[in-house]
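Re: the 253-residue chain
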Amino acid sequence: MQTTNNTVLITGGSTGIGLAIAEVLIKAGNEVIICGRRESKLLEAKQKFPQLHTRVCDVAQKSAREELYQWATSEFPHINMLFNNAGIQKEIDFLTGASGLYDEESEIETNLVATIHLSALFIPHFLQQQKECAVANVTSGLAFIPLKIVPVYCATKAGLHSFSISLRSQLAKTNVRVFEIAPPIVKTELHREAQARKQSQRGIAAPAVAEATIRALKNNHYETIIGEANVLKGASRIAPKFFHNLLNKVATG
């Protein structure tokens, strides 16, 4: 796929992997739009990269997703790429019931429902374009071997992995390409709880994920599993129960 002269929307693009992907796409000659919940972070991103277009949007809200679609396609009618990158991760203990499941942030809405809904909104617009278009979903190595302390996060990423496969099959004969990027632990705000336990010191840097993403787009590698995430995917085929227990033992100390 061509990696220049595109118009790209990245959800959760003001920090971490999203901002790193925005940077490499800008440098490659693309028009880049980012959205996020926090206006302060969007302003910081724009100060760093003045070429960015920004939009405050909480993708966990259905009405906000619809407004984002209407605004993006109106202001940028040639938009042809959607990066579903927004995500949150929470440690939830089901032994305490529903505590933390539906507090300030919903993992299910942000990580899974938003991706599905935004894809459904943008794909008909993409099908009308004359050029190649793309939907790129950021999943995780934990889609293959789950970590028990973040069960909902793992479930949403496993769902996104499955969704990406099905969507790719549906769109195979169209101009819309479907990519999945599955990183391992990355040194971003997403893993702030893991950082408190010193688990994410081994994580890779967000720019490394961004560079791997651009290579995947350029070479039409529709499923890109990065770094240690490859180990988890392989383990899921060999001995999933054994590696699940091993991963959880290492993660919880």
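The radius of gyration is 17 Å.
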